[in-house]
Write a structure and sequence with these properties.
The chain is mainly β. It contains no helices and 11 strands. The strands form 2 sheets. Strands 2, 4, 5, 6, 9, 10 and 11 form a 7-stranded mixed β-sheet that branches. A 4-stranded antiparallel β-sheet has the order 1-3-8-7, with no helix packed on it. The chain is globular, with a radius of gyration of 13 Å.
């Protein structure tokens, strides 16, 4: 069982990135997926989530800019991030959860800087 994030990088303000959360060893069907992020010196914070029924929720600061997308065929969930801002700089983590079980990835760094 493994969850792996990818897609981070260094971009300029206003640019876009697409983060991937890929699961192996189990199917994401029926699991909720939560994207978190942690900026330096700050606690980990929830960013966006998609439930087992595909209900989507977003932190207020990313509404209209970020979109969470589930692709069951690829057993993956994506976080499309548009119009990135310097305050979006953080390590982004994917949590896959159902009932009392959670799997976490290792995180992917997103840096937004001019």
């Amino acid at each position: 069982v493994q969850v792996v994030e990818s897609g981070g990088g260094l971009v300029q303000p206003g640019e876009s990135l697409r983060l991937s959360c890929e699961a192996s060893g189990f199917s994401l069907n029926g699991y909720g997926i939560i994207w978190h992020r942690q900026a330096p010196g700050m606690p980990r914070d929830w960013v966006a989530s998609i439930g087992g029924t595909n209900l989507k929720k977003y932190q207020e600061s990313v509404k209209g800019r970020f979109t969470i997308i589930r692709d069951n065929a690829k057993n993956s969930v994506y976080l499309q991030m548009n119009n990135l801002k310097p305050e979006d700089t953080a390590v982004y983590y994917c949590e896959v959860t159902r009932l009392k079980t959670s799997y976490w990835g290792q995180g992917t760094q997103v840096t937004v800087s001019s």
